[in-house]
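Journal club side-thread
Mid-discussion, someone asked how the predicted structure for our own chain would compare to the paper's figures. Pasting it here so we can look after the session.
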Amino acid sequence: MSSLYLREAQVVELFSLGLTSKEISAALGISIHSVNWHRRQALARQRAAITPRRAPISRTTSTMSSTSDSVVRQFTIAGRKATTPR
């Protein structure tokens, strides 16, 4: 848990002890919304730490033109045109 901020670590520790958001809120003197925010941030941070990093994958689609020539267009995951070979 060294990658967590202090408040995130406190919230996660209290959750692991079985306390509810309302109990953690009272114990730390913060709102229930803040407790839930810190819990979500801690979970996201931990997921990011264990998720392997991959290179972006490009998708290739083919369409037929009216003259039956195949045109290949590559698009990135974000949907932006990467290349259009002719």
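Post-session note: The longest helix spans residues 32-50.
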